[in-house]
Design brief:
Distance between the termini: 31 Å
CATH topology: Rossmann fold
Number of helices: 8
CATH superfamily: NAD(P)-binding Rossmann-like Domain
Radius of gyration: 17 Å
Number of strands: 7
Strand content: 5-15%
Number of domains: 1
Structural class: alpha/beta
Largest sheet: 7 strands, parallel
CATH class: Alpha Beta
């Protein structure tokens, strides 16, 4: 077992897409124990600041930072900013992503590339850049936010399902690569969560989905955040390469 180089509540977590929804809940969960929290966002400046203010109420050190995760150059600038503020991450949560609903026959090549770059390439670039100090210190956590559709696939969500399936394979392979360095890599693959990503569904469609879920309801973002937090703990160091799906019994 590789021990952390500093107490858990003195570590730094980087949450990509941390301005709202699951990402904001994750940032707030880590902030609740006084950790250093970096809230990444792409365009949602005000939402990121609102999340940061909630996190700072706990006494946590909080930094907001914008970057287009499709760009290696912008990720390098993000790293420079974090280094300047002495907030190099011990924990990475690759949460940033976009959804897409529609028939595959209607997906353009440009849309395919864009969703792939945000959901999959972004996680690759962030992990590649920020795992380097983790390897040097022989300790770290990478937690990827995937989806139930990355496990089972979903009709009319072929593009989104493909990106999340890629995240799952990325997680399993990188876990094997980094295990000798004391760095764990896991994925959390939620079922239906009560966030803005469900805005594409009307009330009848949402009710129909809830009826399919044995638990009879959508997950709340804080429930997903609790699992992410658990996987980041020092005592979770023997859990790696796992795709864990909190889905209310929807997929077993």
């Amino acid at each position: 077992m590789n021990d952390p180089i500093r107490p858990f509540n003195e570590q730094t977590v980087l949450v990509t897409g941390g301005s709202r929804g699951i990402g904001a809940a994750i940032a707030e969960r880590f902030a609740s124990v006084g950790m250093n929290v970096v809230i990444h966002y792409m365009q949602s400046h005000e939402a990121a600041n609102d999340t940061a203010r909630r996190c700072m109420k706990t006494g946590a050190k909080v930094l907001t930072a914008t970057a287009d995760l499709r760009s290696k150059e912008q990720i390098l600038r993000l790293q420079e900013k974090l280094d300047h503020h002495e907030m190099t991450p011990d924990i990475i949560v690759n949460n940033a992503g976009v959804s897409h609903y529609g028939m595959l026959s209607d997906v353009s090549e440009e849309l395919w590339d864009d969703v792939m770059n945000i959901n999959l390439k972004g996680s690759f670039l962030i992990s590649q850049q920020f795992m380097k100090p983790m390897i040097r210190q022989k300790y770290g956590r990478i937690i990827n936010v995937s989806s139930i559709w990355g496990i089972s696939g979903s009709s009319c969500e072929v593009l989104y399902s493909t990106t999340k399936g890629g995240i799952n394979a990325f997680t399993k392979a990188l876990a094997k690569e980094l295990a000798p360095s004391g760095v764990t890599v896991n994925a959390v693959a939620p079922g239906a969560v009560d966030t803005l990503m469900m805005a594409n569904f009307d009330s009848q469609e949402k009710a129909a989905i809830e009826n399919e879920i044995p638990a009879g309801r959508f997950a709340q973002p804080n429930e997903i955040a609790s699992l992410v937090y658990f996987l980041a703990l020092p005592e979770s160091g023997y859990i790696t390469g796992q795709i864990i799906s909190p889905n209310g019994g929807w997929l077993t």
